[in-house]
Amino acid sequence: MKKLMTIFLMGTTLFAANAQTNSNNPLLKKWTGPYGGVPAFNEYKVSDFKPAIQFAIQEKLNEVDVIANNPKAATFDNTIAALERSGKTMSRIYTVYGIYGSTLSTPEFDAVETEMSPKLSAFNDKVLQNKKLFTRIEALYNSKESKKLTSEQQRLIWLYYTDFVREGAKLNEKDKEKVAKINQELASLFTKFSQNLLAEEHNQYVALKTESDFDGLPAEVKNAAIAEAKSRKLDVMGCVANTRSSIEPFLTFSTRRELREKAFDIFVKRGDNGNANDNNSTLVTILQLRTQKAKLLGFPTFADWSLSNKMAKDPKKTLDLMLSVWEPAVEKVHLDVAEMQKIVDAEGGKFKIQPWDYRYYAEKVRKAKYDLDQNEVKPYLQLENLREGMFWVAGELFNLNFKQITNVPVYHPDVRVWEVSNKITGKVIGLWYFDPYARAGKRSGAWMNAYRDQQKMDGEVLTIVSNNCNFIKGAANEPVLISWEDATTLFHEFGHALHGLCSNVTYPSLSGTNVARDYVEFPSQLLEHWLATPEVLNKFALHYKTNQPLPQSLVDRIEKASNFGEGFSTVETISSSLIDMKLHLATETIDPHKFEKETLDALHMPSEIVMRHRIPQFGHIFSGDGYAAGYYSYLWADVINADAWEAFTEGKGPYDKEVAKRLYDDIFSVGNTIDQEKAYENFRGRAPKSDALMRARNFPIKDKK
User: Fold this and answer.
1) 74: exposed, middle or buried (Cβ count in 10 Å: 0-12, 13-18, 19+)
2) Helix (H/G/I), strand (E/B), else coil: 156
3) Which residues pair with 418 in a beta bridge?
4) Rounded to whole angstroms, what are the CA distances from 323 to 42, 571, 666?
5) From CA 160, how far away is CA 134, in angstroms rounded?
6) Which residues, in sequence order, are CB contacts of 501 under 8 Å at separation 6+?
7) What is the DSSP letter of 512?
């Protein structure tokens, strides 16, 4: 005991010395200023991260040691609540670290990330595999006294217990070491995969050298390509960046088939070019390590381990759901392709529709069949107006008010911030940061972040959330016009933000979007529906030149064409979901190209479509464990979403106050304080029915015997 105390005191002395050394490191300072403190983005430097992370790791480990070695019997307050209060420095640093990694990546930061990722993983394992700490958590989990606690406190004990067990808390010391070693290796590989993908996206482009190379492109797409070439200082007229927000409009509108093929080629071959950024060997190793980890933890496959804390629980359930939607979606694609091929043949084209033709000819079919041209709609979809439309929807559903502020630092000039309050009481509930534009060092796609979780443990703590997109800036002083698909994505990500902003719970680990992965997409997918409501279109879909709203005739045509392309989007997404699940059900070493081809062939994948994320670029599942064996979550959540939307359509419509109140009370405000199945049943009065999804996608519903 004396020797242990000496070692602990030595560690404390060293920690104190480090604290003094790091006293001027801005990352180690508490957030100050308004709203309970905000990140000091104007003070941080990349060189601050390594010493700050090292300090915060030791601080958290010291705090955990105090909790684990408490001589008093475990109670909720001295163990679970104490853990909730620990690691605040690390939480702040990790938030900023994540922002730099996803939006401000540079070679200097990449080097820090490469070094620190395995160290952060090792730190996490030291906490989760702390035997004394787990003994206290387990005692509370099994205690009859705990049944007297509030339901939220019981839920938090359950969460800690299951998280610790899933990460090996019950293993022997030798196997714990093996799991920890695997986790560190995986952390390094996740970082490598992400950095390779980012390099491919930013180093590759399609040059547009002559005026004819712009043929077919709408003005805003052409202007964006010109601006992109200027920003890269290229000696060409324009270029198409290797990011989805640039590639997809080009594939939709360019009349230059050979250039469409080039653009398609660089996009689908990201991470698969046999160069220094090739991801194939990296992902194979990731899969091997995941299989080893799952078996050490007592699961036959990584998929079984991954789903053990999800709503679905069983991989077979997810496969059954995906395959039930797959067949009607494929049938729909064949019908759509037949119509496209007729146009090709009528134009004298001597080719069969290829993946780089799909969007181009789908747009022609849309125009011919529904008299709907995306370019006719796009002038009404101004980014800033739609943002205001989202705010209005949040006000109608949840009584939220948004006020732009300028008294907090931001990490890039593109970022703006809004104060969010309850418009009835005036009470401020959080901040919303908006980072809308693509740039070098920012990963592609769109996402939501929680900088700080809402909680009420020791007084009200306001949440801070962000939405991040990759819209392309056009010419100076011109409004940014976006596609209907991009507008849907904008509302989707805002749904995640509202899930965080509406949170009203006590403990941070149960706050906001900290729910099961196959449930977290439900609130965001649900919010997409409000984009197409007449109230939003009439108020906020205003022509950028005339300021006139979308004419009713155009609204009607949008409604008629609403299910057009569902076959394509469903096949594109579910093929990725099926590949993901089958990859993580496999236990043998795979060849990525062979596995992808054989699996898709067995599914009779239409040759005119590729997966939304091919294996070597599948960042969702290889940049971390979050969506690994979990990409099915989008479809799983869409079943819930479609069923929930019918609660509004069966009621008084999208702005039914009574249904909206239930949505807030039972879904958006409760976080993970209640089992998600029960939460949904509280909202709907029953479990979700998958028939709603088939109706939403206009797919046939099979009779259930």
Assistant:
1) buried
2) helix
3) 404, 432
4) 50, 11, 30
5) 9
6) 400, 420, 429, 430, 432, 454, 463, 465, 512
7) T
Element (DSSP H or E) covering residue 430: strand 428-437
Question: What pLDDT, on a 0 to 100 scale, did the predictor assign at position 696?
Answer: 87
Three-state SS at 478 = coil
Residues in the chain: 705
Integer Cα distance of 187 and 59 in angstroms: 21
Percent of the chain scoring above 90 in pLDDT: 88
Residue type, 429: I
Beta strands (DSSP E) in 560-674 are none
Return the closest-CA partner of residue 349 out of 260, 240, 250, 219: 260
Which is catalytic among the residues 493, 572, 596, 608?
493
Buried b (16+ CB within 10 A) or exposed e, 482-499: bbbebbbbbbbbbbbbbb
CA angle, corner 142, sides to 141 and 146, nearest 5? 65
State whether residue 399 is helix, strand or coil: coil
Report H helices in 25-81: 49-68
The full 3-state SS of 566-594, as one line of letters, equals HHHHHHHHHHHHHHHHHHHHCCCCCCHHH
Cα–Cα nearest to 287, from 575, 573, 517, 581: 581
145-173 residues labelled b (16+ CB within 10 A) or e (exposed): ebeebeebbbbbbebbbeebbbbbbbbee
329 closest CA partner among 699, 701, 65: 699
Question: Which residues are CB-neighbours of 453 under 8 A, at least 6 positions away?
Answer: 461, 463, 500, 503, 508, 509, 511, 512, 514
Structure tokens at 570: 């469903």
Provide the token pair at 490.
């904008």
Using H for helix, E for strand and C for coil, what is the string for 347-398?
CCCCCCCCHHHHHHHHHHHHHHHHCCCHHHHHHHCEHHHHHHHHHHHHHHHH
| AA letter at 231 | S
- Which residues, 6 or more positions from 401, have their beta carbon under 8 angstroms from its beta carbon? 391, 395, 420, 421, 422, 423
pLDDT digits (tens, 9 = 90+) for 30-48: 999 999 999 999 999 999 9
Question: Number of C-alpha atoms within 13 angstroms, CB side, residue 88?
Answer: 10
Rg, Å, the chain Cα set: 26
Q: Could you report the per-residue pLDDT of 49-82, keeping only the tens digit for each?
A: 999 999 999 999 999 999 999 999 999 999 999 9
Strands 400-405 and 238-241: unpaired
Whether residue 20 has pLDDT greater than 70: no
Q: In 3-state terms, what secondary structure has residue 442?
A: coil
C-alpha pair distances (Å), 243 with each of 200, 201, 261, 267, 467: 10, 6, 15, 7, 18
The Cα 599–Cα 591 span in angstroms is 12
DSSP class per residue in 253-303: H---HHHHHHHHHHHHTTT-SSSTT--HHHHHHHHHHHHHHHHHTT-SSHH
| Cα–Cα distance measured from residue 549 to residue 542, given in angstroms and rounded to the nearest whole number | 4
d(CA 277, CA 265): 16
> Cα–Cα distance between 583 and 283 in angstroms, integer?
11
Q: How far apart are CA 576 and CA 578, in angstroms?
A: 6
Give the single-character DSSP code of 206. Answer: E
> How confident is residue 121, by pLDDT bands cut at 50, 70 and 90?
very high
Please state, rounded to an integer, the average pLDDT across all residues of the chain.
93
DSSP reduced 3-state for 645 = helix
CA pair distance 139, 161, nearest whole angstrom = 10
The answer to whether residue 646 is catalytic is: no
